[in-house]
Design goal:
Helix content is 17%, strand content 28%. By secondary structure, it is an alpha/beta fold. Helix 2 crosses helix 4.
């Protein structure tokens, strides 16, 4: 399983000379198999999607907050007539997946609907578990305002858990640790420092220290921190990383490729 970090920034995309090492594009992963091109989240990182050839395209949304959806109107394959794009998101209250997306991608906030693009979009209400070829996707609810899904994606005995937009305050960390039990890679929301986190209770994000605790409880092989705060520069992120860096502990960088 090949995973590419297309976007690791949280909340809002950033730019500038001091935001280059870790990148400024918001949440998006690309999971590549022989048959499928699976994108997890559709932040601005989705704009940098590579050529997927004839692979079947799937987009799995954790939740419909703007930073996880704003790249969808600029997805390179939108312009390919006849290209099928399957999008999955969990129903939230009275809103199905298609209705959630149309809240943002529709006039007057955007000049057109997904259905106006040449590509053929199929939007599905997510029901887990789900499989794509030999890829199995499971999930649990995250502790995040409005709800979000924490995904576990597995193939041939290898797996990673994508626990972005998760707040450890008020959450059962043991439940996440059990879900992530023995995973090869835990991608964890490390948006805040401990000091920031104490002022941001209820915002739906976590810390490096909490992530390290989850990794320990889960016996996860390694941990990669994602959803970097838009105010955190390369210098600050490097300092945060160096304080904890060891075998299997690092901060995600845009463009990073991981082989499992």
């Amino acid at each position: 399983m090949k995973i590419t970090i297309l976007g690791a920034r949280g909340s809002v995309p950033t730019a500038g000379r001091d935001m280059q090492e870790f990148g400024g594009s918001t949440s998006c992963l690309y999971v590549e198999t022989d048959e499928y091109a699976i994108f997890v989240d559709a932040g601005t990182g989705l704009i940098h999607a590579p050529d997927v050839g004839t692979r079947k395209i799937v987009i799995l949304l954790t939740h419909p907050h703007i930073d996880h959806l704003i790249g969808l109107p600029f997805f390179p394959f939108n312009r390919e007539k006849g290209r099928i794009v399957d999008i999955y998101a969990k129903r939230r209250g009275s809103l199905g997946a298609a209705e959630q997306i149309e809240r943002l991608i529709s006039p007057p906030l955007w000049p057109c609907l997904l259905s106006d693009y040449p590509a053929d979009f199929h939007v599905h209400d997510l029901k887990l578990p789900i499989t794509f070829g030999n890829i199995e996707v499971t999930g649990i609810e995250s502790n995040h305002p409005g709800g979000s899904i924490i995904y576990r994606i597995s193939q041939n005995g290898r797996s990673f858990v994508y626990a972005t937009d998760y707040e450890h305050y008020g959450s059962d960390m043991d439940a996440l640790a059990e879900f992530a039990r023995d995973t090869d890679l835990l991608m964890y929301d490390g948006q805040y420092t401990n000091e920031e986190s104490s002022r941001m209770v209820g915002f739906g994000h976590s810390t490096v220290d909490a992530g390290l605790e989850v990794r320990k409880r889960a016996n996860a092989g390694s941990i990669l921190f994602v959803h970097h705060d838009p105010r955190h520069t390369d210098e600050m992120l490097a300092e945060m990383e160096n304080a904890v860096k060891s075998d299997g502990v690092a901060f995600a960088r845009e463009g990073q490729v991981i082989m499992l």
